[in-house]
Amino acid sequence: MDLEQGLLFLNGEEISVEPKVMELLLYLYHCRGRYVTVEELHEHVWADRVVTDTAVRGTVKKLRVALRDDDLHNPKYVKSVAKRGYKLICESSILDESHDETLTTTIEEPDAAASISDRVTQPKSNKQRYLIWFTCAVIVAMTCIYVAIQHSSSRFDFIGEKLLTEYKGEKKSVAVSSDGRFVAFTGRNLENELSQVYLLDNQDGSVRQLTTKATNARFVSFAQNDKVLLFSDTVTGASSLKLLPLTVSDPESAMITLFDEQYLISGIQPGRVPSEVIVQLANKAESRLMIYAVDLETLQKTRLVAPSHSDQYIWGGTVSPDKKKLMTIVMKPDSYQLVILNFESQQERVLSETSAQVHGAVWLNDEQILMLDRDALNIVDVHTGAMQVVLQNQGDLITDIAVDNNGGVVAIKKSQVRADRLYIERSFADAGAVSRVIDTAPEVTSMMFDPENENMRWVRIKKNNINYIAHLNINTEQQTIHYETKKRLELLDSAPNNKYLLVKEGHRLAIFSIENNHIHYLTADSGLSSDGVFSHNGEEVFFGVQVAGEWEIQRFNISTSTIDVFLRGYMSIRPSKSGFIAADGNGDLYHLDSSLAVLEAMKHRIGLQLITRWHVKQNSVIWSDYDYLKSYVHHVDLVTQKHTVIEDLFLSMYPRTSADQLGEHIVYLSVQINNSAIQQLYFE
Q1: DSSP characters over 401-454
Q2: Which of 93, 584, 625, 667 has its CA 20 to 30 A from that of 37?
């Protein structure tokens, strides 16, 4: 290091660095032998300006890049220790001023014209070769340095975390202002409360509750140069997008509803200009979520991305820092894709694909994306799609992430893998009163009645991202494991003789034989199926599949392993005492006789989502539904046509229900709050 000229050399080569990087190195040199905290660097190196901790760490990273010191586990120059700071660890010594060696050339007197020509031409040739060789060497060296720096700078290493809030209450969605000072989030503190909007000031650690009247505040985003907050009040069939001005003392008093009565509003992200946001919404029940650009001044919606296949779901919709690209997440039957849309060319390309469930993805910069899945936080190279794991997401504790303009990362982190839970049984014979409470371990994620033994339940257990089918004694809590899979698993029905279970593994319907622990698939990975049910005698399975865009009910004979088409035009079916109850693609119910002729349209519509259930038991039709605010369990008596409804908050009565053989009781999951916190994650 040449202190007089302010130059940095590595292995004899001059390295070009920013002035602030040189100041940082000089300060670390003067403090060699001890650790220097980030606060001390703020005070001495950045005394002339106020910057974030992320900017300081970014300058440290630039210094490491310049010194090619990219191995954090075995550093050669700069060592970092969480909460202690940085220390210069290389040996240093003062060198005397070097003396340049000069090359003197003696020119002899020529003897003749020919010798003059030879002696003049030869030195020029040597000089030219030397210049060419030197130029090539410089080019090669600079190329190597550039490649090394690019490779080093593309690395991202986790170095620590800091709690911004305590582990208290449920937190759903997080957003951060462009300068990183403010963090907005949605959530609630108690089970009986509704989700509201909160604002954390990173400068003093204070948290303000901005709303008290939100119905179900779910997604949140800054907009208009961080002067306003937008949030979705997400209720299926009646969702709204609302704006909170942050320039007034009471934002809720000046809150504006931008639009309401939307079927569903999902994520919100900043747009290409301050007056634009990117919103995911569905206009009606039959439509899927699509990505729209919304002009906050005119409220005009422009569709940007829509699903290209019926088995796809799209969310995300984040704009790159240079405003030229849009990143979306596409959920396919057995994988998740990051897809990049170029605004100018309108061309899409798949950047990466993974089998792990993706929770979200944000732009770190124009070259890198931070992707959160159930297993890890990953850096994805925008050009190559190469993925680097930077932080393991053990237990799927991190649920959401956001990034400011300086690359600062904030996250929501749960306190435990799964919230404490109970399973509640209710009796329709007693006006829906609670008849039993079953305490289970958090690993029990769903429960189904055993058709033969009232003390036993079929359950799904989830541990370390593996799903198990188990038989549970609710009195002794003894479990017997029968099957395991890494794919998503849903328990749908049990045969009346208790020999088989009907399940959905991934996107495939299957019959599981309890006697020999064998699974037989009814549908293919590429097909689209709904659900299924056993016949009354347990010898057949009726299930819905989509063929050439149309729904039909197929029938599987267990003894012969044959499939035939049973009924066209319907998505789901249940046997009844006198025939069948069938649901079309919209969920509208029809009563059919034994010859499959329509007896009546029942004027009821059921939910056919993955987590809802419906049952026909004796003279009862029972189904669950939800709107993200509440869950509902409906009961219709086929004889009297009496319709009753039980309702509770969404997680207090999870809609994945099971009914007993007589249709007198249902059981469902009731989840307590999983306390979570806002964290700052530090990377280099």
Answers
A1: EEE-TT--EEEEEESSSS--EEEEEEEGGGTTEEEEEEE--TTEEEEEE-SS-T
A2: 93
CA atoms of 649 and 631, how far apart (whole Å): 6
Would the CA dihedral through 513, 516, 522, 525 be positive or negative? positive
What confidence tier does 579 reach under pLDDT thresholds 50, 70, 90?
very high
Question: Phi, psi (5° rounding) for residue 420?
Answer: -60, 145
Q: For residues 534 and 551, is the Cβ–Cβ distance under 8 A?
A: no
pLDDT at residue 607 in the model: 85
- Paired tokens of 228: 């306003």
Task: For residue 343, name the pLDDT band (cuts at 50, 70, 90).
Answer: very high
* SS3 at position 568: strand
535-576: per-residue pLDDT in tens? 999 999 999 999 988 999 999 999 999 999 999 999 999 999
- Distance separating alpha carbons of residues 534 and 522, to the nearest angstrom: 13
Q: How far apart are CA 267 and CA 173, in angstroms?
A: 9
The conformation of residue 101, written as its DSSP 8-state character, comes to P
Nearest CA among 640, 642, 584, 635 for reference residue 614: 635
Residue 202 in tokens: 């990173």
Q: Where in the chain is the domain with CATH 2.120.10.30?
A: 421-671
User: Which has the closest alpha carbon to 673: 211, 195, 231, 218?
Assistant: 195
Reduced to 3 states (helix: H, G, I; strand: E, B; else coil), residue 141 is helix
Q: What SS3 class is residue 388?
A: strand
Measured distance CA(438)–CA(669) in Å, rounded: 10
**195: helix, strand or coil:** coil
Q: What per-residue confidence (pLDDT) applies to 90?
A: 83
Note every long-range contact of 369-376, with CB atoms under 8 Å and residues 24 or more positions apart, other chains counting.
369/327, 369/338, 370/401, 370/403, 370/409, 371/338, 372/398, 372/400, 372/401, 372/411, 373/336, 374/465, 375/465
Cα–Cα distance measured from residue 2 to residue 205, given in angstroms and rounded to the nearest whole number? 43
Q: Does domain 158-414 have CATH number 3.30.470.20?
A: no
Q: Specify the domain boundaries for CATH 2.130.10.10 within the chain.
A: 158-414
CA end-to-end span of the chain, whole Å?
24
Task: Match domain 8-96+128-154 to its CATH number in 1.10.10.10, 3.30.870.10, 1.10.1200.120, 3.90.950.10.
Answer: 1.10.10.10
Task: Please name the residues in contact with 523: beta carbons below 8 A apart, sequence gap of 6 or more.
Answer: 507, 508, 509, 529, 543, 545
Domain with CATH 1.10.10.10 in the chain: 8-96+128-154
657, two tokens: 């229900």
- Specify the DSSP class assigned to residue 2: B
- For residue 235, give the nearest of 661, 632, 658 by alpha carbon: 632
Q: For residue 259, report the phi and psi dihedrals to the nearest 5 degrees.
A: -155, 155
Cα angle value 3/5/8 (rounded, 5°) = 65
CB contact at 8 A, 529 and 545: yes
For the ranges 143-157, 368-382, 617-631, the lowest mean pLDDT is seen at: 143-157
User: Are 249 and 275 within 8 A, CB to CB?
Assistant: no
pLDDT in tens, 184-229: 999 999 989 999 999 999 999 999 999 999 999 999 999 999 999 9
What tokens does 237 get? 């069939």
Neighbour tally for 257: CB within 10 Å: 11
d(CA 362, CA 383): 15
pLDDT (tens digit per residue) in 141-152: 555 444 444 444
Whether the pLDDT of residue 3 is over 80: the answer is no
Dist CA 242 CA 233 (whole Å): 7
Higher pLDDT pick, 98 / 638: 638
Distance separating alpha carbons of residues 194 and 129, to the nearest angstrom:
79
Query: What sign does the dihedral 667-673-678-681 (CA atoms) show?
Result: negative
Is 421-671 a domain of CATH 3.30.360.10?
Answer: no
